[in-house]
Amino acid sequence: MKIFNPSNPTRSCRHRKLYAYYEIGYTVAEFAAAMLFFVGSVLFLYPAVETPAIWCFIIGSAFFALKPSIRVVRELHYLAIGDYTDLEGAGQG
Predict the structure, then answer these.
(1) Which of 18, 59, 65, 87 has the greatest number of CB atoms lying within 10 Å of its CB?
(2) Please, what is the Cα angle at 66 between 23 and 40, to 5 degrees?
(3) Do residues 6 and 43 lie in contact, with contact meaning Cβ atoms separated by under 8 Å?
(4) 69-81, pLDDT tens digit by residue?
């Protein structure tokens, strides 16, 4: 099994479930990053709340960094559980 192979999410039922869980995490990180950047941008319009705006950008940046990290961890998780497609018909015949 190769890392970042487009067929990895469909190799087995377990792979499909993992894909779904990691996609939820990726979407949450993406949404959080976007909202933090939006809120930070609005806060920057008011000099009195500049520090919270900066923190929104810093935390939002961390969420943007988390997104590719989630994908890499997912692929490593696929490698850890292996490729069971070869075993599906092993007991037959």
Answers:
(1) 18
(2) 110
(3) no
(4) 999 999 999 888 8
